[in-house]
Model the fold of this input.
Amino acid sequence: PGWMRSEMMLDHFGVTEANWRDAIPQNPGFERSETPHFVGRAVAALAADPEAHRWSGQSLSSVGLARVYGFTDLDGTQPDAWAAIE
Done:
């Protein structure tokens, strides 16, 4: 996962899942955060894939799997926390 938009982080910034974007001016990188649901969807996609063995021995990201399997986070995005590092 990338930067996790967990309950602890939402509390830290004084926001909720409904208004989490209000924390972006305080910390612009938070725009690329992902919910625990996004990671869960990645796990579910892998579990449902009969060809999941193709990923054996690899380090995978939630966003990379989202691009392959077509799932999104709760807000309909595919957040890429790692894009800021490139």
Q: What stands out?
A: The two ends are 16 Å apart (CA to CA). The CA atoms of residues 14 and 48 lie 36 Å apart.
